[in-house]
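User:
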Amino acid sequence: MSRQLLTLFVAAVCASNLALARPVPPPGPPTLKTMPPATLKRLPVSALTLGSLKVELEQTTLAEVKALAGNGRIDAYGEQGSRLYWLCYTVESQDTLQQVWLISDAEMGGPEHRITEVQAQSASDVGRAPTACPLLAANLQPLALDGRLWLGSSQRMLRTALGRPSVAQAGRLGYAYAGKVKLARPDGKRLEYDRVSYLTASFDDGVVTRIGVAQITSY
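Assistant: Predicted structure:
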């Protein structure tokens, strides 16, 4: 191999490795033309199960998941109040590859980076799993929202589990909840907080290909 070809080969390998090492930011939840009104009387989803691990929104931290997974890295993007922290994992399913993001809002997730949002999408063209979005350990599979809904679920399953959607658009459904919850402060005093939650999903031939859920509690 000539020196020039060797130089090009090394440069190509380095570029490939750099691309694989770049952060893989969350794509954002499935978009809706209008924000869904808060029509649900209960939370659409409260937790994500990863095998036997239960990831509770606003409770479980990114560091806890990373430690149990044994791999992954916490990346960040944005400034101040809009800053997000996340873990990304690639999941090998029977029919396709999937990518899942566990996200912590910098403000609402606190310094512990409690998980406030989950996003996932089918990604048949991912190819080799990026360093920043490694393969999820087999013991943390399968994945499901509240143990029942995930990528590959049918639109009928979603409607059966959650009822009438807050908004329905071509190829997309949105569910939204807004309510009150009483929580104890560190001093033991119980206060009433506002809690909002949403779930949005996109479909291809009636099957979920993208799904996102978030929950925020504020005083």
